[in-house]
Every structure is written in structure tokens, then in C-alpha cells.
């Protein structure tokens, strides 16, 4: 390049200009600091400007920037959760086999009838209530099909104090009946916190009116337990004892029998008032339920079980009499006014209708509910 010839502008940044020799400075026209530098070529782009894109490139660019108008999506609304909506889910279904728990929650059951009873204007509003759950397998129709469904049921006990702190363990497969403290089976009455109060201080729970039977045993921990311990949970029944009434179970004339013989034990019931032992035993032999050579041992076994049952009935009568004598008037009034309510799910389009299988019976200890809802 000849000295004094101006360089064309390029897009690349040039290095800082070095001071020119005196002879070069004399060949270039002088510029005042206030005047802009003389343009080298008006048709050339400025140093910092990008080259003008071709029409084809511009067209492509416009096509990329073009946005297809999307239809406006409809606003999605979620129904507001009810204050007691998860109450039935929090109540432990006592006595349900662990491998059938998933069947209980197969449907989104609706217990709005229970919620309404506990809310303002409801039959249980402002009453202290204790809730426990259970399940009733029933054959019910749903969407043109009938199948056995695990129906969840919630029992509400209106009482100023817990109806019991014990759990009964009894089944046809178990020869003996056990009455254990709830805490031994990891169960207890705990306050239920409605949704609107979940953020409240713990101190407010002291005024809770709703208590639920909860179990802290988790399914994941079952593999560490012995089989007999696991089965105990499945045979649990909420226990209740009313000293003011004759207990139908304790005054029953029926005994459950489990005669342990090989290869198969004998399961049956014997009523010492209605059944004649000789005929009862012969019938079992005729039905091949009992080997003929076990007739006499079986009869001795039944006689012993009947003696034990009669003794238990006598002791129960004495215990009730003593409890009545030592009971305060306040406690006696509470037992007299205690009510049991049995709640079934409300029919919905997404759940089976269980109206036809509702029954007042709760269990062998509580007997029948005062009201079925």
C-alpha cells in the first residue's frame, strides 16, 4: 500500500494505530478534533455494521420468525378442596389384610356425608367424636360389571372420652382371643387436623373435637416381623366394653373350636344350649371332618372349652357389677348417651353404589350402630 492512501473499512477490529512518521503526517489532510473523520466510501458499510443480508436469506429469516397463531387454551379450573376431604383417608382401616389395602383405595370414594355431619348444622357438629375405619368386601355392580369390592366404612363414636384404649384380636383361625392395649399394636387415638388448620400452632390441637384411630406400623416394615405378628394386625377389631349393658359376646353360649389334628385341624362352632355333643361329633365324622378314632379326644376337648367359656361369662358378670358400683354419675351418663354412627361412601359416577349392602353391624364388641348413613 502506498503511503498516504486511506484503508478501506472492514468488519474486523483493527489494532490500535501506531504514530506515523512525520512525512506521512504531512501528506494527509489535517482534521480538527470537533469535525468527523472523512468517510472513505459512502457506499461501503460502517465498521461496526453487519452486511446487508440477501433477499433470499431475509426471506428465510422472516419464515423462521413467523409465528403460527395458536388457539387460546381454555383456563383449567380445579375444584377447591373441602375442609375435611381427606378425613376418611387418615382413618386406619383396622383388621384389613395388608395385601388388600390397595384395593380399598382403588376408587376415589366420597365421604361427604361424614363431612357434613361434622360441619356446622350437622348431627355431630361441636361433639367430641372418635373415628375408626374398617372394610367390608361385598359383591357390588359397577359399570355393567359385578365384582367383589373392598368397601371402606368409617365408624364415629360420639363420646366425651375415648370409647376404649384396647384392641381385640380374634378370628376363626385363632383358638384364643386376646384383648391388648392399643399401643402394643402401634395404634392410638390422635387428633385430626382439618385442612384449613394445618398451618396452625400445635397448641390449638388441645381443643380438637375429632380424633381418629391411627396406626404407625408401616407396610415396608412388615418383612422384619414374624408371621404371627403380621397376622395379629389383620385380626384386630376395635374393642368396646359397656359395663351398663349385658355383653352379648360374653353371655353367648357359643364357643369357637379349633381341634388341632393332622393333616387338617377341625374348625367349627359349638352351642352348648342348642347342640347335643354326641350328635354333633357323629355329624363331623359322617362329613369326614373328624376321623373316627378322634371322637373321644374331640368330645373331651369340647367339654373343656365349654367350661372355660362359662367361667369367662361368670367373671364378666362379676366385673360388670363391680364397675357399675364404682362408676361416677358423670361416667354413667356418658355411657348412657354414647352413640355409634356408621358411614358408607356416597354414590358417585366414579364409584360403585353400595346402598344395597349397608348394614348396622359394626363388630362383635360394638354390636350394631345406632344410625347408618
UniProtKB/TrEMBL annotation:
Q: Which residues form a coiled coil?
A: 299-333
- GO biological process annotation, one example: regulation of cellular response to heat
| InterPro entries documented for this protein | HIT4
- Coiled coil as a keyword? yes
In this chain, composition skew of type Basic and acidic residues spans 11-23, 44-59
Region spans: Disordered: 1-77
Keywords of this entry:
Coiled coil
Q: Where is the composition biased (Basic residues)?
A: 1-10
What is the protein's given name? Myosin-H heavy protein
Species this protein is from: Perilla frutescens var. hirtella (Perilla citriodora)
Amino acid at each position: 500500500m502506498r503511503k498516504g492512501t486511506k484503508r478501506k473499512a472492514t468488519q474486523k477490529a483493527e489494532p490500535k494505530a501506531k504514530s506515523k512518521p512525520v512525512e506521512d503526517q504531512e501528506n494527509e489532510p489535517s482534521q480538527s478534533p470537533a469535525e468527523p473523520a472523512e468517510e472513505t466510501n459512502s457506499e461501503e458499510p460502517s465498521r461496526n455494521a453487519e452486511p446487508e443480508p440477501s433477499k433470499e436469506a431475509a426471506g428465510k429469516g422472516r419464515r423462521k420468525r413467523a409465528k403460527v397463531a395458536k388457539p387460546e387454551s381454555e383456563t383449567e379450573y380445579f375444584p377447591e378442596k373441602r375442609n375435611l376431604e381427606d378425613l376418611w383417608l387418615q382413618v386406619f382401616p383396622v383388621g384389613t389384610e395388608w395385601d388388600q389395602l390397595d384395593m380399598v383405595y382403588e376408587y376415589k370414594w366420597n365421604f361427604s356425608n361424614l363431612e357434613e355431619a361434622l360441619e356446622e348444622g350437622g348431627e355431630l357438629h361441636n361433639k367430641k367424636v372418635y373415628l375408626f375405619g374398617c372394610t367390608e368386601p361385598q359383591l357390588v355392580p359397577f359399570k355393567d360389571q359385578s365384582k367383589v369390592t373392598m368397601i371402606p366404612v368409617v365408624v364415629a363414636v360420639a363420646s366425651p372420652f375415648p370409647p376404649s384404649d384396647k384392641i381385640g384380636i380374634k378370628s376363626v383361625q385363632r383358638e384364643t382371643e386376646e384383648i391388648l392395649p392399643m399401643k402394643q399394636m402401634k395404634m392410638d387415638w390422635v387428633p385430626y387436623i382439618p385442612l384449613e388448620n394445618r398451618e396452625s400452632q400445635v397448641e390449638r390441637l388441645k381443643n380438637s373435637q375429632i380424633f381418629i384411630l391411627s396406626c404407625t406400623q408401616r407396610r415396608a416394615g412388615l418383612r422384619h416381623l414374624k408371621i404371627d405378628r403380621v397376622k395379629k394386625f389383620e385380626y384386630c377389631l376395635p374393642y368396646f366394653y359397656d359395663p351398663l349393658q349385658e355383653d352379648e359376646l360374653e353371655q353367648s353360649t357359643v364357643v369357637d373350636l379349633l381341634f388341632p389334628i393332622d393333616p387338617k385341624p377341625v374348625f367349627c362352632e359349638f352351642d352348648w344350649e342348642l347342640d347335643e355333643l354326641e350328635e354333633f361329633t357323629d355329624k363331623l365324622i359322617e362329613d369326614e371332618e373328624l376321623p373316627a378314632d378322634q371322637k373321644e379326644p374331640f368330645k373331651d376337648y369340647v367339654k373343656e372349652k365349654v367350661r372355660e367359656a362359662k367361667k369367662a361369662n361368670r367373671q364378666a358378670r362379676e366385673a360388670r357389677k363391680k364397675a357399675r358400683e364404682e362408676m361416677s354419675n358423670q361416667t354413667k351418663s356418658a355411657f348412657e348417651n354414647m352413640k355409634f354412627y356408621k358411614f358408607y361412601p356416597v354414590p358417585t359416577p366414579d364409584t360403585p353404589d353400595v346402598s344395597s349392602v349397608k348394614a348396622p353391624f359394626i363388630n362383635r364388641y360394638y354390636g350394631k350402630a345406632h344410625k347408618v348413613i
